[in-house]
Here is the input.
Amino acid sequence: MRRYLFILLFLSATFGATAQLKPRPDAFPPKPETLDSKAITMATTVEEMADWDRYPTYDTYLEMMRRWVATYPTLCHVDTIGTSVQGRLILSMYIEPPTDADLYRPEFFYSSTIHGDEVTGYVMMLRLIDTLLTSYGTNVELTSLMDRTRISINPLANPDGTYWRSNSTIQGAQRYNANGIDLNRNFPNPFVPTKSTIPQENQAMMDYFAAHQFRLSANLHGGSEVMNYPWDSFTSNQNPHPAADWWREVCQRFVDTARTYGSNHFNDVTSSGYIAGGDWYIITGGRQDYVNYTYNCLELTMEISTRKTLSSDRLPEYWHFLAPSFIHYIGEIHSLPDNVGLRSTETGNIAIYPNPTTDQVTVTGLPEGSLIELYNAYGHLVISSFNSQFSILNLKPGLYLLRTTVGTAKVIKR
Ligand SMILES: [Zn+2]
Here is the structure.
């Protein structure tokens, strides 16, 4: 008896952590959700989006973006990230209030619905844009956040998938792009470089990342409710992300805040509401690992609704419990972990941390006693050092170029 009990205890201790995991919906060709056609109401005008309980038609979406820029021309502009296979626009609302030009403002990026049928985040991001723009100058917390942060929000990364049947409905939305490709499995694998054809939606996204200095981002999905932090390509035992401890704190804060407003959420995969991606299910070619590795931008995959295509009348309920977490997550950019350096795209060898910083800089990946030179934006040498640790306390805030014998990198003085 005792022995059996021991075996039982052993089994539950060994498998207890994973027994509660559901198969990752992202990992398999998903079963299409049975959609109650009455549960999806479309907004054919911007006015019909007033209560945020509908999905916009494609034209309504474009008109919303156009009107925000027309209404708040000094606060925002629209970036065209690129176009889809069928020629639809991949857009991002870039929010950047005019402020002191010398003030360093880190860049933040939200992106949703790379899987075209995972549409909850699409409406959440539209509503976030609206909330930010209408709050500038009236809400102290949000005004301060916008003054200190450049925020780019891409509500719809895969428009062909979402409007697969027609521009007038999201009924029949599909996961894939118009060529049947899963975009979140077809970014280059940064760990095992192979020659592959990059889907045009992903190439546009890669170009957008390359043109910016995003330090923190999130990619929104649906089908589960869990914060999925890097890496997706490895289990946390095989290769933990260097900022894993920080990620768990950030995820915990996100989930705790969401549960304050909706207590029964983020519990369908783990009881904590978060997990290292590879511990859930290993995937390769996802955007998260590519962005984290290549651009040294900390990107989190947010699975925000158990239904991929949420009934439209439930959208306000999801906004209610998610909005404070979405906003707090943007603010996390101002307390990034010190051990994740800003790696230059020109060299994979040297890393600098903390970066951005106010004072001490440490450069790793250089031979002992190497010359390190720091140039300002005008190309003037401002510091030269043979020590891999030095101070930039006396420099003005801004962007600097660090030059070494093995490569160059950007340093940001806060
Ligand atoms: Zn997804």
In short: Residues 351-413 form a domain with the Immunoglobulin-like fold (CATH 2.60.40.10). The chain has ten helices and 17 strands. The pocket of zinc ion is lined by residues 26, 115, 118, 184, 221 (CB under 6 Å). The chain has two domains: 31-335, 351-413.
